[in-house]
Amino acid sequence: MQPQILVEPQRWRMSVAPMLDWTDRHCRYFHRLLSHHALLYTEMVTTGALIHGDVARHLRFNAEEQPVALQLGGSEPADLAHCARLGAQWGYAEINLNCGCPSERVQRGAFGACLMAEPQLVADGVKAMVDAVSVPVTVKHRIGIDQVENYDFVRDFVGTVSQAGCHTFIVHARNAWLKGLSPKDNREIPPLRYDWAYRLKRDFPELVIVLNGGVTSTEQVQAHLTQLDGVMLGREAYHNPWWLSQWDSAFFAAAPKGELTRESVEQQMVDYMARELAAFGTTWPSIARHMLGLRHGLPGARHWRRVWSDHSLKALPPAQVMALAHGPDLYEK
Question: Where is this site: Interacts with tRNA (predicted)?
Fold first, then answer.
């Protein structure tokens, strides 16, 4: 067994959730400009994609993103161990196992939320990864599956998996309905049970318990942090990214490194776009899409967002697009 790196629970105090098609390396670079301390997660990467696909394409990230965690989707212990080892070799600070995604595509691969019905299989996968790497191995899961709500189910799941060497559990505090609901509905319709996450922390005080699901304000985060070790934010953090700029001072008691403004962040993203184009041929629209909420609520935000969303400007250098975004309204009749 590899010696596990002991990490203070503070690492998980605030994090941005793994979100498919959203939290790619460009998104994470943007989020890191806003918060130096929040833990960032990749999109879910399946073991099959890493074993049979382009490893560099899936695992490449910018050093500035650290701390960044790799989320894996899979169920075969040997495959999980192999992919965890790849993640550690590429420099990820944590390997996370997805036991919460309810989509039918994921279910067909026999992983995601359906794994909660097989806690021993999850434990075997966790043990294989713990034996393979020295970075922390964590699990993100729901509180149950389908419409049967029973706290004992999630308590026993956490108890079984923790015995395999997992010390951090990220609890999306809703059931996952495996039939009849879309992934979007699964984020909204099953009721939130925050008290179940609190009970897990009471029942397993030695574990790091992080809450995910439905949190949208600083006040809510602060309330949850009185009971738990951390809070993970998903869509609210993505759509309202400027909120991240408050996290270091509000939740980590850390002073900002220099003056942070929306304009300075935008300029740093423009510089990043230029580097990405030179290094990888990446055009700016695939990067800019992640920062469209940066000026949310400000005068001129609609025009700014429309310019940065306009693919007809794709051939222009990003610095010129930025100038247009802050200039007269291109779309006035």
Answer: 98, 184, 187, 302, 305
Confidence bin at 235 (pLDDT 50/70/90): very high
DSSP 22: T
Return d(Cα 50, Cα 63) in angstroms, integer. Answer: 20
Asked if the structure places residue 331 within a domain, the reply is: no
**Domain encompassing residue 288:** 262-325
Evaluate if residue 106 carries a pLDDT over 70: no
- Tell whether 212 is in a known binding site: yes
Q: What is the residue type of 115?
A: L
Return the active site residues.
101
Three-state DSSP state, 143: strand
Q: Side chain identity at 114, as an amino acid letter?
A: C
165 is in an annotated binding site: no
235 annotated as belonging to a binding site for a ligand: yes
Mean pLDDT over each residue of the chain, to the nearest integer: 92
Q: What pLDDT is attached to residue 140?
A: 98
CA distances from 280 to 49, 60, 62, 143, 249 (A): 21, 12, 13, 41, 35
For CA atoms 264, 267, 271, 273, the dihedral sign is positive
Quick check: 333 pLDDT over 60?
Answer: no
Q: CATH no. for residue 277?
A: 1.20.120
Please choose, from the candidates 70, 76, 73, the residue with its C-alpha nearest in 3D space to the C-alpha of residue 133: 70
Kindly provide the b/e burial profile for residues 103-117, where b requires at least 16 CB atoms within 10 angstroms of the residue's own CB. beebbebebbbbbbe
Is 140 one of the annotated binding-site residues?
yes
Query: 2-6, 70-74, 105-109: which range is least confident on average?
Result: 2-6
Tell me how many domains the chain contains: 2
